[in-house]
Amino acid sequence: MRYSSTPFRLFDFAFGVTLIWAWRLLRTGDGRPLFVAILIGVLYVGIGAFGLVHRAGDPFMGFFVALGSLLLLSAYTLAPREIIWFPSFW
After folding, report:
1. Complete DSSP assignment for the chain
2. Stated pTM of the model
């Protein structure tokens, strides 16, 4: 049986499109996509950390940690201040 990475490529493409959508809305001051950006950032950091442990410190998995951390930092920076201090989704 041959391994196909097509579903994973589509999954990564969907993540990328979602992040671009969230980034554009956050830049305009709309805080609705903040939860999606935080969720994807946490998933990237978690997958990267697990991959670093599981693959014995493979530097490639460090990119996931770095990208997830940058996403969390940019989401925090771009989020409207009233959402950060008094989030309505709590």
Report:
1. -----HHHHHHHHHHHHHHHHHHHHHHTT--TTHHHHHHHHHHHHHHHHHHHHHTTS-HHHHHHHHHHHHHHHHHHHHS-HHHHHS-TT-
2. 0.69
